[in-house]
Hints:
The protein is of the alpha+beta class.
Amino acid sequence: GLWYTKDSGFELTGFSDADYAGCKDSFKSTFGGAQFLGEKLVSWSSKKQDCTALSTAEAEYVSLSACCAQVLWMRTHLSPKELERLAKSQ
Length: 90
């Protein structure tokens, strides 16, 4: 489990990156993302994109949208009351 002190921040932050045509076999882009709750890593992923990007910008956009989708999913499952309950239990 993760250990949070009472004064820990619960800011949800996401990072993403993409490598245009990173897979040498299929020329599909690869991407990854990491999500942090406070300073703790709570989710990460790395995979080949399902679509074939036509530019570096498009590969980055696909990566960013996947990261945003994960952050939004986490926000729906970690309500402010849930975060407050977690903080008080420490």
